[in-house]
Fold each of these.
Amino acid sequence: MTRFFTEDHEWIEVDGDTATVGITHYAQSQLGDIVFAEVPAAGATLKKGGDAAIVESVKAASDVYAPVSGTVIEGNDALEGDPALVNSDPEGEGWFFKLTLSDTSELDSLMNAAAYQAFVDGL
Amino acid sequence: MNAINQSGWKPEMGNAGETAPATFTGNKALMLEEALIFEIGTAATTGVDLADAPKVAARLGNLERHRDIGLPGLSEPETVRHYTRLSRQNYAIDLGFFPLGSCTMKHNPRLNEKVARMAGFADVHPLQPVETVQGALAVINELAMWLIQLTGMHGVAMTPKAGAHGELCGILCIKAALAARGDPRCVILVPESAHGTNPASAAFAGFSVENIPATSEGRVDLAALTARLGPDVAGVMITNPNTCGLFERDMKAISDAVHAAGGYVYCDGANFNAIVGRVRPGDLGIDAMHINLHKTFSTPHGGGGPGSGPVVLSEALSPYGPLPYTARNADGHYTLIEEETAQEYHPHSFGRMTAFHGQMGMFTRALSYIMSHGADGLRQVAEDAVLNANYILRSLEDVLEAPFAHSGPCMHEALFSDNGLADGFSTLDIAKGLIDEGYHPMTVYFPLVVHGAMLVEPTETESKATLDQFIGALRSVAERAKAGDPSLKSAPHHAPRRRLDETQAARKPVLVWREPEQLVAAE
């Protein structure tokens, strides 16, 4: 399994042609206390860079973008009752959705962990 | 007896650092605690003496209510005191300086109020025969003419009820114009520096929305915008002056490029007070722009209304504007063009957005404001709004980072970021510290293009003395945040409630009041 990152602070962990998506530690620290998350329903078709989910904190409401194109397998329903999971474990239990990738070559444009860390350090 | 806090509705947030002794009543001298009306009134008492309802046959079927509804009863003095006490806990523009960026909280001249309360305006009903409301229609028509004159546009839709409603009106005009020429364009471009409602309005009208980045100067990236234009782009929505408080200098070039690509230009005119009398949006190639009468032309707002958002339209979009609208006949009488006569006078209208003719109370106030200021006065409104904002920006840029201070003068509002505060201190702490100083905080964490944004809009109605005192207060609070003063983390110390748990309020909101007995029974 390999983990990639976007400049919009999403992470995506790829396992074959399926993947799990969430927002990064840096993203949750910038947003502050998360109070609401809306995840896509199974079957939704996502386009790379398009709106996929919504995350709301005490400071702001933000879109979560799809790092790659694909079809949603499952949204993380646990976030509805406990959005604080995104703060406490953003890159684990606080995942947003799982999807089937429609074009694995889209992963080539994403960053690996080291490149993302360098990107965040430069902000 | 402690009538408060039984429901969990108004939690006491603790008295950390409080040295004064607690009072028996919970009141702090003349700052009175006030329970909910459900907690102070009972269904067993009443302040009015009503005759028993006559026995008539109910026609409600099984919808007829047989239980008591338990509305609280209070005497007239108890009722008056309840609401007066609550009003004393509020903060308002009539109490003090209200620098809420993007909201234009300015003084509302009392002349406007006097005019709006004249019986001929205040007591008319929208279903009265038009012959009996000629004066009211004349006001709508006269205001429409002024708005067209001030903006250099071709027509105006007076009915939209507020800014976002106006946005929707403009976008629906664009949609109708595209439909009329059989053009399936479906993308609206919205820059990062636009108001947050813009993408929502476009999406609501069925368009897909794409973002255009801002430059490091805080303006629309013209190159990125022109690169994205094409046969699928229906138009752009630009806020000018924008939410960074900056004038979009490339506006004419943007309009020309969008028109050349076959699209339309919507301008969010919420910040028109910064340019009224100085710039005519029609000269910048804009096709539709809403004007927040309740901001630029000073009608009381905040707390959700009332608002009024007429939309001025270019020659290209005017044929598609909504019904109804006023027209002046050759004999001097006013009529309303509605569905019955639309086929003859306004056949391409996209339809109706409101039941009636718009916000009459706002129209009378806005026209009073415009006529009492005159052309020279309106020009001075824009000049003083910009002067005051720049005075704030330049007076505080040494203590708070102003990310776009290098982009030249700001317009009606000054934008600061949280860079340079001590570790663990944030914009929120500064906002809470300002409450202790007796100010409504500025807008915080908006716009999103700036980290920990603080957006200050002083408006043109504040004196230099008022601004100097605010600058002193904000400077003092900012210096405490930079020095890491721990007492600022627990501010406000002097407000009726200490710092509220906003996270818990959003995650587990208590939206329904329940009688304490029911709570006990449920446990």
Amino acid sequence: MSEVLTAASVTRRFAPRITLGDRIAAALGAKVDRRPVQAVTDVSLAVRKGETLGLVGESGCGKSTLGRMLAGILPPSAGEIRLHGAAPMRGRHKTTTRIQTVFQDPYASLNPRIRIGEAIAEGPVAHGLVTRAAAPAMVADWLRRVGLDPAYATRFPHQFSGGQRQRVAIARALAMQPEVLVCDEPVASLDVSIQAQILNLFLDLRQELGLTCLFISHDLSVVRHVSDRVAVMYLGRIVEIGEAGRIYAAPRHPYTQGLLASVPKLVLSGDPAASFRPIPGELPSPLSPPAGCAFHPRCAKATDLCRQERPPLSPREDGTLVACHHA
Amino acid sequence: MSGPLLSVRDLRTHFLTRAGVVKAVEGVSFALDRGEILGLVGESGSGKSVTGFSLIGLVDPPGHIVGGSIRFDGQELVGLPVQELRRLRGRRIAMVFQDPAATLNPVLTIGTQMTLAVRAHDGVSERAARDLAARTLTRVGIPEAAARLDAYPHEFSGGMRQRVAIATALLHGPDLIIADEPTTALDVSIQAQILAEMRALAKESGTALIWISHDLATVSSLADRVLVMYAGRIVESGPVGAVLRAPLHPYTRGLLDSLPAMAAPGQRLNQIPGSTPSLLSLPPGCPFAPRCPRATEICRTDPPRVEPPGRLALCHHPLEAA
Amino acid sequence: MTAFWNEYRENWVAVIALAVVVVVVSAALLAPWIAPQDPYDLANLDLMDARRPPGFVGSNGYVHWLGTDAQGRDLFSAILYGLRISLQMGVAAGAVALAIGTTLGILAAQAGGKIEQAIMRVVDLQLSFPAILLALVLVAVLGQGKVPLVIALVTAQYAYFARTAYGAATAERQKDYVEAARATPLPGRRVVFRHILPNCLPPLIVVGTVQVANAIALEATLSFLGLGLPPTEPSLGMLIANGFQYMMSGRTWISVYPGIALIILIVAINVVGDQLRDQFNPRLRR
């Protein structure tokens, strides 16, 4: 299987913006926090042709930042993103159209003042994928394919429900004829019944178009449902990556184990108390991540080795990569 | 004291908006015993939150309770003066919101806020109030509670803030806590901690809990009984295991089948077609009829009748109970 | 649009204010046709008619409903023509300041870094001292006349637009739809002109409305101080100044009526601007 989209040791830091006011405050003796936040640290991974790679983790783990780097929207501070060996960005600007993104909040990701027909057509027209004259037919075709009435092309986003807007957002991304689709929490803001519709649409279109996908979500059951492989992130690093079925059936990293155990399952009979088990402790601040293995303060298996030395992401016999001294 | 702690009959809450009357809650009836955990499940616009707010008189205009009865420990709450409702809210009924920022004042320390809350209803000393605050924080799993009383809300993480909000709700040992999507904004590992603590608290203290959520799995792992709401009505209710194992209402069935966990990975989910109807223009018959695979002519014309309590499904053609 | 008007209609004060603005603007536009006298035509004026009280019937047979000024001009006509000049100056200055300020503000937000710092620090500096001071200096340097006056007004006011446009553009740039546009990627020009700019317009329209009123007031102040337009084409400020010397002698109407006209216009524009701001502000929406 060929690798389509790769990240090689990418790191992303966000330096706090130091304004003139901050400088004056600092000169007057105030404490101004200038520590950069390291959202993603030294991540390497590859998305293979035709697969869907799921990216899971809790808020602040860096999954969205990694997703935006892979989508070519955010340049890495260090390391390289490559699409078939070529950089998707020049400087701060995205250059490739072969990667497209579906964002989390369909209320925010559509411009309220632009009719959805124009929203779908503007990218393809700007890049010469379709002529201006042929654009309305293409828009109608895409609206139909995402399950909307082609007559809706002249409507504004506020005339649609959340689920319908997300269909528009999917049509807008796919009208660019991408090879890779990055979905950043595409169903997180939708109701359960609408979420199912959008997931079905995603599954259908993915198969029909042979898309390669990166699917970012905090919802473990959604990721399980759509992904071939899964990467689990904790505090800016990947702690486990491998085939979805194997990771869900037999997680190796204690964090993956804890995460999977903490999700309440649907209890149809028996003891509801057994349906989930919390991970103790709090997520550490990304400003000062713990030394050694970042998970050690919450880990039952932690030893002195874990407190001192960070475990590398290393392969196991079944191909899963795990970053743990004891798994 | 005999009889249920809370008994709601035919509650109707409407919003008189510019566009028309939004019947957010339309004929909701249920009862709740002491120490019972009731899950109130539905999608956005189902009326689950408005139901919760109606119970404690916190519906903001243009919303109004236009009919029905809410009896709490024998006392009728509908029509009760604002002052009395407020007293009840502080002492015997507490509310936990999705966003703890709605409860916590950003410019006061946690300790100040909690002692103010205690002393507003109990004439105890400052010191006693602080002690109570510290003990309550410990109960919801906040380490070094006494020291953290002097911290401001922004110094806590989201999960910790929600615990503080829950602790504030617990201060007076209320008989009833209404929690509106309290863990929706939290990460799963934190949500699990709070779920575990809530369950323990309800069992230990005999506090009744109404847990409003869109998440069936969370409710199934916490609640004793579940009410499923759709378009302002309770469409199904019963013991949580029975309802989820063998739902009677096609909507409940559809909701369960929409969960990715219910299908094999990569397979299409058994989705409910269409979208939730606008509460401004509900169909004349069953509000779920346009999306329902079992709908017949009668569903489109006659609203289904409410059956006596127990295991209930608001449906002309309920599924077979297993 | 209909919904917008329906909401506007709920505030009857704003509706009256809008009606006043419409009436005043049309009166000013139609001044040559509805004014009883052409106040600029010196041949029309008779010094015998000077400083006559309201209701006086002049030598030329006109009824001077608002009286006459020191040159024997019909005050009602002079006010209509004065409104014309004041509105011309206000709208011209407002429009040019809007164009320049918006360009600078959006450029600063879009460019970032040194350009942003340079533009916004100048803007901040300018906002930190009174507009009138700057306008006075500029008029003193550039001399009298319409063009120098507009330049002075624009210089004094563009900073408000720049600040507003910068704030709005910075807020819009954070939004997901702009990120979505860059993720497509759409050309930078299209992102700015089709996506960011239209979403920045509501606050700019509000500031624009209020700044037109401010420009009118500023122009009136300069004219009152004798630094505005030449006395042959008196604006409202000049009319007020001309009558000022007669206030003590009981001939108050020469100043008072132009003053009332000025106040009504400025208040009405501000009320309309306030209502627009309330309607555009999503936080105040129900």
